Amino acid sequence: MGETGGEKIKKWLGKLTNFTFIACMLVGAYFVLQVLVVTSFRIPSDSMMPSLLPGDCILVDKCSTGARLFNVSDAVDGKEVDIHRMPGWRKFRRDDVLVFNFPYQPGRWDSIAFDVMKYYVKRCVAVPGDTLEIEGGYYRVAGYKKHVGYLTAQRDMAMLPDSGAAHILMETFPWSKRLGWTVKEFGPLPVPAKGQMVRMDSVSWLFYKQLIGWEQRRRLRIDEGGHVYLGDSLIQEYCFRENYYFVAGDKADNSQDSRYWGLLPEPFIVGRAWRIWKSEDRNNGNIRWNRIWKKVE
Questions:
Q1: Which of 266, 271, 263, 197 is nearest to 235 (CA)?
Q2: Given 1, 18, 48, 140, which is the most exposed site by the fewest CB atoms within 10 A?
């Protein structure tokens, strides 16, 4: 005896239910992977050439250093959000290529702001607890004998005349005539680590006013006598709540990075660039097959 019409409907409904369940599971797994494990970004500019080219699509490892959790809806609306990082099994290291949310508003480098829609990619040059200098165009980390950053670009910067070049902005963070730092001669700049205590004076105020103002959500100011105030309270030292990093583009003559806007808070870091999964020449649309699955180094 053949199947009745009702039995056929039940059979197809069962298949449809199973298909819908599997599809929902796959979609859910995709979003879990995107949020917690790995995500993809497209490189729009040449600031990381030759390591990354415009048109490269990179996979970003979120998992090893801990994925971020925050209220995405509030972030999109421009509200302040608390960012929490899940446990990972490695820390961000010197020479990691990092993807992060740019920590400042357009045209305003006086205060830190989280923009969930604006991403940058740069190389980590100094990690929390380091003291960084640029000497004659070359990056130096105190007590660390190995070279850091992209060496070829630093050689190019070393060849610049001290007066600069027409296409390069020589003056740098913290934009102080008193210090007179340039892209060739910079620092020393101590990079704060979570729990690190610093003495507050006129120099540390220049270095850290944006960072402390962001952590405390209160303005840090200084009076004519060099006394530093957090809101209305006089402070002589400060203990940092977050880790910070110094990041720089491999194409040093065309990169808006920590040399100009200062230090990067760890909560703003999405993760570590891992591999190039696709690369397309923007001029002709051709696929760069030699870059497919290339490790980002």
A1: 197
A2: 1
